[in-house]
Sequence to fold (169 residues):
Amino acid sequence: MLIDFILKQHKLWLESNGSKGKKADLTDANLSGADLAGADLTGANLAGADLTDADLHGANLSDANLSGADLAGAYLDGAILDGANLIGANLTDANLRGANLADANLHGANLSGADLAGADLSGAYLTGANLNSKWMYRTKVDQSQLSWLATDPNFCDWVNNLIVKKEAA
Fold:
């Protein structure tokens, strides 16, 4: 299967610091319903990819480009997305429980109905994101993000369940 070959080449690229293999370029790929659980896609290009209902639990997507990707209904439980580019991504009804989204760029992303319980959003760029999430229990955020988060219509429902990381003096 082509995706298996791409993942093997990407793993070789990661392990060799780019001297062997090839960085995964899955731009506009149709990966709807794909089983990518535990995959290491660090730094991969998945811009515009269709990942609806894909299983990405425990996957490493650190510094990956997921701009404009469709992740509606995707299972990203425990996924590592720190530093990922999620500009304009569709994460409607995605399961992001315990996911690491620290320092991710979520500008204009749609997280409507997403499950963010236990997720780490500290340092994430959230301006313009639709965070109409019903599940933000024990979600980690920075103190500086609170004023923007307060604009979310469900803020009053989950504000007391957030873990707020205080800014260093």
Summary: The chain has one domain: 25-169. The first helix runs from residue 2 to 15. The beta strands are 140-142, 163-165. The helical segments are 2-15, 146-149, 155-158.
